Amino acid sequence: MACIPVVTLCDIRITLWFGDALTRLQAREGPEFLEQLVGLILLIAAVQGIFRFLQRWWIVGVSRRFEIELKQELFDKLCGLPLDFHDKSRSGDIVSRLTADVENVRMLLGPGSMYVLSALVFVPGSLFVLWRISPVVTLAMALPLLGVALAMGFLTPRLHSRSTAVQESLAEISHRALESFSGARVVKGYGLERHESRRFEDASRQNREAQIHFSKARGLMHAAIHLAYDLAFLPVLFVGGWAMIDRSIAVGDLFKFIDLGFKVFWPVIALGWIGGLYPRALASAERIQALLSETSHIQDPPDPVPLDAEGIEGELSLSNVSYRYPGAPGPAVEGVHARVPAKSVLGIVGPTGSGKTTLLNLLGRLCDPNGEVRLDGIPPRQLSLATLRGALAYVPQDSFLFSDTYRANIEFGAEEELTDERLAEFIQAAEMTAETAQFRGGLDQLIGERGVTLSGGQRQRSCIARALARDPKVLILDDALSAVDTETEAQLLQNLRRAGEGRTVVIAAHRLGTVKDADQIIALKNGRVDAQGTHEELLERSDWYRETWDRQRMQKELEDL
Amino acid sequence: MRAPEKNARPTEELDEDADVVATKAWDWAVLRRLMRYARPHLRMFGSSFAVLIALFGVQLCGPWILHNAIDGPVTRALEASEAVDDGSVDVQPFLRELGFWAAGYLGLILVGALLRYKEVSQLARTGQFVIHDLRSHLFAHIERLELAFFDENPTGSLVTRVAGDIENLNELFTSGLVVLLFDLVKVLVVLGLLFWVSPELALLVALLTPVLIGVSIVFRGGARRAHRRVRAQLARLNGYLQEVLSGMRVVQIFRREERVSSRFGERLRAYLKSNFRTIFLFALFYPIISWVTLVIQASILWRGGGALYAGTLTFGDFILFWFWLQLFVAPIRELGERYNVLQSAFASAERIFDILDKQPAIAPPARPTPLPDPFRGHVRFENVTFRYGDGEPVVRNVDFEIPPKKTVALVGATGAGKSTLVSLLLRYYDPSEGRVTIDGVDLRETTLASYRRGLGVVLQEDFLFTGSVRDNLVLGRDWVSDGSLVQALKASAAGEFVERLEHGLETEVAERGATLSTGERELVAIARALAGNPRLVILDEATSSVDSATEARIEAATHRLLQERSALVVAHRLSTVRRADRILVMHRGELRESGTHEELLNHGGIYARLHAMQFRDLDGKDDPTG
Question: How many alpha carbons lie under 13 Å from residue A149 in its C-beta half-sphere?
Fold first, then answer.
């Protein structure tokens, strides 16, 4: 921080030396002193350069450190927030908290504070020096500079609203393009190419007009700033000239006005810029604060039963379980009763949107329902999250894997690093041995965005391997077999049966064939239990189950031709 | 964590990098093509240049007025008072002259302010007009390309072409090209003027300037590389954030919050490290540039001071020189920045032209035979074979017909070639061998417009556009009247739930139809097809399971859609198959069986076997899947 006054005061000093030199030359003093002076100026300037380097390095560096600390804090916060928070916030919004909002605050704290501090030293310093030469000229010159700051303060809101309009119209362009390209099959099927082009052209034209509108505000700002700045030189010219004629100031003094006038311009502009930045940064800081003060209602109980995951048997009981998403008109799951004995298999089926995934979320306490989900008869209020989730493994519907090495993805499930032999076992159980053998990088092959792309079925099987690596008491599969072909499914079911031995398995499925051997099956309909029982019992009790079974049977036979 | 080198480059980094690597900074061919889009707006470019020239004049004039005031009335007043000794000179005439120059200056800066406004708004306007033309042209071109193009190119990168790359070009037109060219002119003109004021000092400037340019260029090179690293690290960081957010369920249930947090921390530190490199470079650049500039100024004082003393240079000249020097240095400082803009714009332009150079594979023939409106709808597949590129055929020698107003159902396993036949009939692709005709006309010989006008299309997981339900039903087809819309809603049973929506037909459909359930989306798709009163229906039945009531509604709507129309159906519903006039059984790309339901049952082939299993299954006894 101490660098800032040094740098700015050197700046002022150098101008004064230049001016004084001119005055001495005007007074017919010989040019011999110049060599020494020029040497001194360059030396001081070099020192100033070092301080200028330190100032930037230090302040911007600190602001970057601040940025990563804040990002880490926000990230950790997000990991701790419950699923209903993540479901209700769009991921784009959260990402912009960590990107745009953090950047706004950082700009204010880093470069912003640097410019403000140097302006706060430079502007009064220069005015003070000039005041001592000629109060009248200084005053006449300072007024337009004040005008710069005023103009910026006045025009900035307009600038912002127009720039928002530009951003919105740009977003509309991307949106139009995205929609039209992803709907290419429909667009072509109905011959809508011209129609879509016209719609896009409208969006593009709107952007053009918004950009032009915005540029007018920018032009106005640009003109106002320069006008005020140029006006500052008018008194220098007229009053300064007059004073020179009057012999009350020397030519060197006039030079000081001109040169400091130049130099004071940017700090003033920067002040205006910060003035515009400030409200935005404040709004960002508020949004960040709001995120940081979110609390998770899913907490460890104060006095959990002293039991670790090893001691869990895996019996699940659901009594009158209901769950409604925040803001949803009706419950996603309502009044579900079930008892799943340890080491048995429960199947959950039902049409799309009937509540299968929600029910699975409740088992791992990703959300807290009305009613109770007990594990081994222990109510959730007495079970620590470590014990509960330590006993569970989960295979998600979207087959989520990290863009990381294959090994890291499987080890994600395990508590510690796995030996190659253990890894191979899990991979074998998930029917992925043949595929991983083909990886160029072996088990350290990167997968996902930056590496090889796995097919839907391969991803699903990998998720199963990851879950098995956890050696769970309760294995939860969310429609985990939908993307594999029937042959693999049969193989996989067999492996799962083996892997599932000694475990409780809860499996939600789209294909009824997946669950027909389950000890019991729940058929959901609009969040409620439509029917419950074994496969044979459901064929009799539920129309939906029977019709769907017939239809899928035919599809399956077609597949098997 | 040892990653094989070949896979180590993140794709997002490639994308981010693409605008700064492997492109020439100056490419005449690309520039000439871009100029074609500028040509219709030459007048605007002309006025932009005029504004820049006038503004440059104003910038030069300001210091010149100051110079004239100092060397004119001020100096003469001082000389006069020195000559008189006692200082009792009448300064009024000098003050009047000074006032004259001050008034001139005031007028000048007012004109200047107007020009500054124009500088920004006129340049932006010019650029925006060109950009709008280019963007619309690019989009329309992409729309004309065949479906395979959309399959090959990720949607995201296509969107980047029409959004991000076009924005880069905007920079080229508004702040890049025009200003860069003009900056070059400025530097040369100002240098000339400096020589005019004082050849000795100007020579000094000319000798020291290469240092300034050198520092600027060296720094920009380094800064560009450093920026690239920062961007790549930031992309990795944000990519990981996105990834964890989308996998939060897994992270939490596996209790891996700490593990992902420390991975995020690693990426944060890598990002910080790359940031420090740019901070270092910038922290170094600004002081060095300032110091070099000061060296130039100090040497001017040193040499100029001598000249002032010797009387070969006036104070006015000195101040004029000082001001104009600022005009000379500023563009040089900006040079590197402008160069970067230019380079990235050229890279974007190249990517845009790559797309514009692609000719649509499905193009109308030179002399097309338009189909009558309405056409009869007699479809024939004549010995059709299709392969992607040089690959194995995905359908082989398929030969069948759909007589007018008859329904043909396709059954078979996934990958048996059903979708390919649908794609061929939709003319997403053209057959590799054989031909597809409608009313005896080869699809390749007719116009897409006249053909698609008579089509009704219902695809699996049909796509809904943002807009109202009505927009989605009409889809910009001007021949869909309100009357046919009402009929379509009624016939498809979509009317029931549309009425229940808050704003009825005018209800906005959220992105990708999220406001509607799966079943409702299917009904809307059927209503959409019905609304156009098509002659030929192409239906790819959805496989997702919906509740029984909705299922029954969809079945009824499908039935009504197929009535009295030619239709090709990829069937998943037994009822649809049974009602078809002809059933085609596809197996491994070949047409294996064909006939009515009864015929195929009597034939005793694949279909009969299937059907038998159905019955056995309905008895609920045997379990063939075991």
Answer: 14
Closest partner residue to B3 among A223, A405, A549, by Cβ? Answer: A405
Please indicate, yes or no, if residue A509 is contained in any of the structural domains: yes
As a whole number of angstroms, the distance between CA B254 and CA B472 comes to 42
Asked if A178 contacts B444 with a C-beta cutoff of 8 angstroms, the reply is no
Provide the token pair at B335: 């040079």
pLDDT beneath 50: ranges in chain B: 1-23, 512-513, 616-626
Average pLDDT over every residue of A24-36: 83
Residue A410: the pLDDT is 93
User: Residue A503 falls within a domain, yes or no?
Assistant: yes
Q: What is the Cα–Cα distance from B470 to B548, expressed in whole angstroms?
A: 27
- Only one residue has tokens 């209790």, namely B255
Residues A499 and A387 in one domain: yes
Sequence-ordered list of residues with C-beta below 8 angstroms from that of B354, at least 6 positions apart, any chain: none
Same domain, A409 and A498: no
Judgement on whether residues A360 and A407 belong to the same structural domain of the protein: no
Q: Which residues of B touch A82 (CB under 8 A)?
A: 252
Do A106 and A15 sit in the same domain of this protein? Answer: yes
What is the predicted pLDDT for the residue at A483? 59
Same domain, residue pair A57 and A125: yes
CATH of the domain at A75: 1.20.1560.10
**B84 and A CB contact within 8 Å:** no
SS3 B81: helix
**SS3 (DSSP) at A319:** strand
Tokens read off for A21: 């030199």
A67 & A94 share domain: yes
CB-based contact A47:A11 (threshold 8 Å)? no
Residue after which a domain boundary falls, among A417, A448, A471: A471
pLDDT digits (tens, 9 = 90+) for A99-110: 888 988 998 888
Mean pLDDT in residue range A346-355: 87
B318: Cβ contacts below 8 Å, ≥ 6 apart: A22, B304, B308
Report the amino acid identity of residue B432. Answer: S
In this structure, are residues B406 and B568 in contact, taking their beta carbons and an 8 Å threshold?
A: no
Q: Which of A172, A188, A489 to mutate to test the interface with B (most CBs of B within 10 A)?
A: A188
What domain range includes position A36? 1-134+276-297
Domain match, A322 and A357 both: yes
Task: Give the pair of three-digit tokens for residue B434.
Answer: 């054989």
Residue that is last in its domain, among A450, A471, A492: A471
Under an 8 A CB cutoff, do A222 and B117 touch? yes
Residue B610, both tokens = 């299937």
Taking residue B591's Cβ as centre, other Cβ atoms within 10 Å add up to: 22
Interface of B with A in 485-524 (CB under 8 A): 517-518
* Whole-angstrom distance, CA of residue A65 vs CA of residue A146: 35
Element containing residue A206 per DSSP (H, E) = helix A193-245
- pLDDT number for residue B421: 92
**In the prediction, which pLDDT does B243 show?**
86
Whether residue A293 lies inside any domain: the answer is yes
Q: Could you write out the DSSP letters of every residue in B230-291?
A: HHHHHHHHHHHHHHHHHTHHHHHHTT-HHHHHHHHHHHHHHHHHHHHHHHHHHHHHHHHHHH
Q: CB B8 to CB A450 under 8 A? A: yes
What CATH number did the domain enclosing A525 receive?
3.40.50.300
The verdict on A375 and A412 lying in the same domain is no
Residue A139 lies in a domain: no
Least confident of A131-140, A246-255, B286-295, B542-551: B542-551
Q: What is the dihedral of CA A268, A273, A277, A278, to 10 degrees?
A: 20
Q: How many domains does chain A have?
A: 3
Residues 379-408 (B) with a CB less than 8 A from some CB of A: none
Phi, psi for residue A316 in degrees, rounded to 5: -115, 140
| Cis upstream peptide for B364 (omega within 30°) | no
Among B158, B179, B294, B373, the strongest candidate for a mutation testing the A interface, having the largest count of A CBs within 10 A, is B294
